[in-house]
UniProtKB/TrEMBL annotation:
Presence of the UniProt keyword Ribosomal protein in the record: no
Pfam families (alphabetical): Glyco_hydro_64
Region (Disordered): 45-73
Protein name: GH64 domain-containing protein
Secretion signal span: 1-21
Signal in keyword set: yes
Start and end residues of each GH64 domain: 84-458
Protein source organism: Zasmidium cellare (Wine cellar mold)
Length: 468
């Protein structure tokens, strides 16, 4: 049994009952949606950095070692004591490259944009330009040769943090925004991004005094360079998420091409090649460009119609897994209406379902607790095709073994679903790791699929590059 189930962590940290659905203010205006920043490639300060009030800790060490020891429990690497806000991080190179760079970005505990400098201190990239300027600071930290471990120490708390790992270098830009500097990060969805041809990946983490650490590896945006993570807790346990094997992008691309042959939809277009025609990554369907050609056509339309028709005469129960309890939904006219919800849901289209953040799934200011609980659960149900199957009238209620199974007996009739997410979970070691943005929706008694690790008392966070 894994130790990272967010519901169990909820016992320790009641504010974080379910990561996908808790826009609860945790401190100083920090909201859950500030913690996981996925959809935009900008990370904006939420407050300005004031050099005089900075309390950033100066006890840090950043140096590569050439040890082959990657065992957390008996590491020969000596970290600074993990006192206060310092967090030891090991990056282990299991990829066959001598040219890997590590970058760490996020917001500090005051909401100011930071990156980890090569010196081991936070640097505060800044500019007065409203046109993105290259980050001037020295922020590319070389990872050692294969089988070496790079020990780093975060010199302070980090919100919306990402640990970027790249074969070669990535380009980060800073831009002036109304709240202070914004970081323009590499965007896999943008073919013109200057880092588009670089093989890279990132792990996400948030680390603060109230919550401790929450971290994950993610395929929400794409599958590329494989990463695994480990989190060693002060209580002696270690949570591990192995991620995808080394050849995951190629396997996934081949399977998506096969799916395209079966259903004629544009799954093959998710494979992204560099100028040498080499596969570089596989995008999630939520990252297809908005507007223009729609390679999925009317893919979900009939399923959505069938669902809306079914719930005009049947109850859909959404288990909010929070104070509103179970709420009953019915279609009235064109909209699905849930008891106690401040507004209803129009029929979602392909883009709405794959991204879970547009159309009926976009969250607006003033949406109430019912609405904030229904959006992730309804969107997850469409991605996993768990509506209109036995047990599907209560969401979430079915175990992971029933996700993506609708009409598997009759492949020709199989329900539309997020094939990218289904295949990513099949490829992932242990089947865990976010493959769409609400992949942490799960019945309370079932293992979650997201591969979130968490600890209120972290001792060491490890990222393994190339997990095979
Ligand atoms: C690690 O090995 C590289 C050569 O592979 C060498 O240049 C470097 O000095 C070594 N670093 C340490 C800390 O021993
Ligand atoms: C691992 O660490 C423990 C505790 O420090 C020690 O007792 C043990 O001998 C170590 N094992 C190895 C193989 O170094
Ligand atoms: C890394 O370690 C593995 C397993 O011990 C070994 O098979 C591989 O050859 C090593 N790679 C390098 C570049 O030393
Ligand atoms: C960051 O600020 C820019 C400029 O004001 C804005 O366009 C962008 O949407 C912001 N990004 C986020 C994630 O808020
Ligand atoms: C909601 O319904 C589920 C299954 O029908 C049940 O297990 C759960 O206890 C209910 N929750 C509440 C708060 O009544
Ligand atoms: C250790 O901490 C982890 C993370 O907080 C928790 O999931 C686990 O249950 C704890 N284990 C023990 C034996 O206390």
């Amino acid at each position: 049994m894994h130790l990272s189930n967010p519901f169990r962590l909820a016992l320790l940290l009641p504010l974080f009952e379910l990561a996908s659905s808790t826009p609860i203010i945790v401190h100083d205006g920090l909201k859950k949606e500030d913690i996981w920043v996925r959809k935009e490639n900008t990370l904006n300060s939420t407050s300005r950095h004031d050099a005089h009030s900075s309390s950033s800790n100066s006890i840090t060490n950043v140096h590569a070692t050439n040890t082959t020891d990657s065992d957390d429990t008996n590491s020969t690497i000596v970290h600074q004591a993990a006192a206060s806000s310092n967090l030891p991080i090991n990056i282990v190179n299991k990829w066959n490259s001598n040219n890997i760079k590590v970058y760490i970005s996020g917001l500090d505990d005051k909401g100011a944009l930071v990156m980890l400098g090569k010196s081991g201190q936070w640097v505060y990239p800044t500019t007065s330009s409203s046109t993105p300027q290259p980050v001037p600071d020295s922020v590319a930290i070389p990872l050692g040769k294969p089988n070496s471990t790079l020990p780093l120490t975060l010199p302070g708390y980090l919100i919306s943090g990402r640990i970027w790992i790249a074969v070669g270098g990535l380009q980060f830009f800073v831009v002036s925004t109304p709240n202070g500097p914004g970081l323009v990060q590499p965007s896999a969805a943008n073919q013109n991004d200057p880092s588009a041809e670089v093989n890279y990946a990132f792990a996400e983490l948030t680390w603060n005094s109230q919550l401790g650490i929450y971290a994950d590896i993610t395929a929400v945006d794409f599958v590329g360079l494989p990463l695994g993570i480990k989190l060693k807790d002060g209580n002696g346990t270690t949570q591990s998420i192995a991620g995808t094997p080394a050849n995951a992008a190629q396997v996934l691309c081949d399977q998506l091409k096969a799916q395209k042959k079966k259903d004629g939809r544009g799954w093959d277009q998710l494979c992204v090649y560099n100028s040498a025609k080499k596969l570089i990554r596989v995008l999630s369907p939520s990252n297809l460009p908005a507007g223009g050609q729609n390679p999925f056509g009317t893919y979900f339309a009939k399923y959505v119609d069938d669902v809306w028709n079914h719930y005009s005469t049947n109850d859909l129960t959404i288990n909010t897994q929070s104070s509103p309890g179970n709420v009953t939904c019915r279609t009235k006219g064109d909209k699905l209406q849930c008891a106690g919800d401040n507004r209803g849901y129009a029929k979602p289209n392909n883009r709405d379902i794959f991204g879970c953040n547009t159309g009926p799934f976009s969250i607006q200011q003033g949406d109430n607790a019912v609405h904030l609980a229904v959006v992730p659960r309804l969107c997850a149900a469409f991605n996993r095709a768990t509506l209109l199957i036995p047990g599907g009238n209560v969401q979430p209620s079915l175990p992971p073994a029933k996700y993506y199974t609708a009409d598997n007996q009759r492949p020709a009739d199989s329900r539309p679903r997020n094939w990218y997410s289904q295949l990513v979970h099949q490829i992932e070691t242990g089947g865990r790791g976010y493959a769409f943005s609400y992949d942490d929706v799960a019945p309370s008694d079932q293992e979650d699929q997201s591969g979130l690790v968490a600890s209120a008392d972290p001792k060491l966070f490890t990222v393994i590059v190339g997990t095979s």
